[in-house]
Amino acid sequence: MLPNIRIVLVQTYHPGNIGASARAMKTMGLTDLVLVNPRRFPDPEASRLAAGAEDVVDGARVVSHLEEAVDDCVQVIGASARLRSLPRPHFDEPAEMADALVANAADPVALVFGRERFGLTNDEIRHCSHQVSIPANPDYGVLNLSQAVQVLAYEVFRAWRQRPGSGLHAPRPARDRRPTREQLGHFHDHLARVMHASGFITQPHARTEEQLQALFDRAEPSRKELSLLRGLLSSLEQGLDAD
């Protein structure tokens, strides 16, 4: 279960924060670290601040884009301190987020953290299925990157520890497995093609597509249900071609 829970750090500026985050992960049993386009890595400062978690740093995978880090994940939760206009499902409490993440961790899942100075961009949030915020002092709610990783990693570890013998935290049966972000991306591309071909959308309309993406993120369809929807879209496409 825990090996399927991935921590993703996007464009980390200070290499020491990579090491400190790795240390925060290891104390909570997490080892899967992916770095998206870090400013400096590998770097001695990352290893120094890991303080016993050098194996997590050494095993970190480096990718160029967020999609590469999360395409195989069935749930991707972006940590964000700011309210956003994007209609992504949002966890106001880290404990609720952790319960949901652990429940889906029979397959790969991810927690995504942004840059030290300004977090995740709206475009990066679009690659997430959910958002989570850490409640803090409204007058000074500033958390260091590794502190944020520690808080959410602790909640995940707590949820995992409470899982044995609890039907509430049992993983989904195989027939109810959630699709990966890559599979959902193919579905949304297919849906967009049909909407344009049918005349439902006559010009690029990113807001409509974003709202539909958020709708399916909230609905959390299973892989079987997504396959059914893809079949429906294919049937509609054939009808449009025949016309």
Q: Describe it for me?
A:
There is one protein chain. The chain folds into 2 domains: 2-169, 3-Layer(aba) Sandwich (Alpha/beta knot); 174-242, Helicase, Ruva Protein, domain 3. Strand 1, helix 1 and strand 2 form a beta-alpha-beta unit. The longest helix has 20 residues, at 223-242. The chain has a 7-stranded parallel beta sheet with strand order 3-2-1-6-4-7-5. The protein is built from 10 helices and 7 strands. It has 243 residues and is of the alpha/beta class. The protein has helices spanning 15-27, 44-50, 54-58, 66-70, 94-103, 122-125, 145-162, 181-198, 206-219, 223-242; strands spanning 5-10, 32-36, 61-63, 75-79, 90-91, 109-113, 130-132. 47% of the residues lie in helices and 12% in strands.
Give the oligomeric state: single chain
Could you state the CATH homologous superfamily of the largest domain? SPOUT methyltransferase, trefoil knot domain
Largest sheet strand order: 3-2-1-6-4-7-5
Average pLDDT value? 89
Our estimate of the beta-strand percent is 5-15%
Quantity of strands, as a count: 7
H-E order: EHEHHEHEEHEHEHHHH
Q: What is the terminal separation in angstroms?
A: 50 Å
CATH architecture grouping of the largest domain:
3-Layer(aba) Sandwich
Q: Give the class-level CATH name of the largest domain.
A: Alpha Beta
Molecular shape: elongated
Summarize the biggest pleated sheet.
Answer: 7 strands, parallel
> Structural class, please?
alpha/beta
In total, the number of domains comes to 2
Helix content: 40-55%
**CATH third-level topology of the largest domain:** Alpha/beta knot
Enzyme class: transferase
Family: Belongs to the class IV-like SAM-binding methyltransferase superfamily. RNA methyltransferase TrmH family.
Catalytic activity: cytidine(32) in tRNA + S-adenosyl-L-methionine = 2'-O-methylcytidine(32) in tRNA + S-adenosyl-L-homocysteine + H(+); uridine(32) in tRNA + S-adenosyl-L-methionine = 2'-O-methyluridine(32) in tRNA + S-adenosyl-L-homocysteine + H(+)
Keywords: Cytoplasm, Methyltransferase, S-adenosyl-L-methionine, Transferase, tRNA processing
